[in-house]
Amino acid sequence: MRLMPGAVGKLATPMLLLGCTLVSRKNAPAERAVAAAAVVDTIDWARRDNSFRSTCDSYRAPADTVTACLRAESGRAGACAGESVWAVAFDAPGRVNRVELRRCGPQEARWDSAGGSLTIVYPVRYLIVRDGPDSTALALYVSSNADEPGIGGLYAALPGDFDHDGRQELALVYRIDGTGAVFEGCVLAHIAGGFHCWESVDVSAALYTQLKAGETLRKGPIPVPGPTRPPFDSWTGPLGDDGTFWWFMPVYAESDANCCSSVNQSLWLQLVPRSGRLELGKVLRSVDPRPDSTAAASGRQTT
Fold this sequence. Notes:
Layout: E1 4-5, E2 23-24, H1 29-42, H2 45-52, H3 63-78, E3 81-92, E4 95-104, E5 110-112, E6 119-121, E7 124-130, E8 139-144, E9 152-160, E10 169-176, E11 182-191, E12 194-197, E13 199-200, H4 204-208, E14 215-217, E15 222-224, E16 245-253, E17 265-274, E18 277-287, H5 293-298
Parallel strand pairs: 13-18
Antiparallel strand pairs: 1-18, 2-14, 3-4, 4-7, 5-6, 7-8, 9-10, 10-11, 11-12, 14-16, 15-16, 16-17, 17-18
C-alpha cells in the first residue's frame, strides 16, 4: 500500500471538516471553483457548533434564565444512568471540572415492540460540565440530543491538553445516523467565559487537490481510531504519538452508488492542535484498506 503526501498548509477560514462532504473534481477551472465553493457550504462552521452547543444557549438574557435552564437540564439528566465521569482542568491544573456523560434509554438504538407496535427506541445522552469536582456543583454546560434522538448523538469523548498550554479540553465526536453515518468533531474548551469548539481551518481546497477528474467524496469524515460503539472509554483519541487528529474519507467515482465505491481509495486528513485551534497537517491518499497508525502518523510509505 502506498501513501501519497498531498497539499499541506494553513488556511484562515474557521471551519472544520464535517457533515456529508461532497467534493467533486471537474475538468474546467470554473467548474472546479464551483465545486470548492460547494464543499465550503457543506462544512459550515456554524453547523458543527450547533451539534455541540449548550442546550441553554438559546437563552441569551437575563443570566438567571440561563441558570434556570441549566438547572432544569441537569435535573433531567440526573434521572439518567451515568456512563462516564471525567475530571477535566479546563482552566488550570488546580481547578478541576466534573464532566458527566449520562444516558436514558438503550445503549444503542434498537427495535421495541412494547405497546403492540414495532418502533425504534433511541438513546438520549447528556454531557454536563459542572462548576467544580462535585456531583452537586452547578452545571455550567449541558448538551444533549433529547430534542431529536433519532438523528444522532454523542459518539465518543476524550479529555486531554491537546495543544500543551496547561489547560485541558474535551475532544468530542458526534454521530449523525443515516445510510452511511456522518461524524462531526469538536475540541470543547472554556473560551471567553463559555464552552465552545475550537476554530479550525477550511480543508476543502487541500482535499480537492487530491481528487482526480470524475472523482468525489461522499461519506465521512470518519474519526480514526474510534469506537465501533459505546462504551465511551474505548476511544483512544488522537492517532499517533504526536497527538494529532486523523480523519479519513472514501473516494468515489461520480457514477458510483452511495453504497459502493469503485475507486477503493481513501483520503486521510490530519488536524494539528496548535494554540487553541486546529491547523491543517498532512493530506494523504491511500489504497484501501486504511494504513496503520504508525504509517499514517509519519507519512511513510507502506506495503
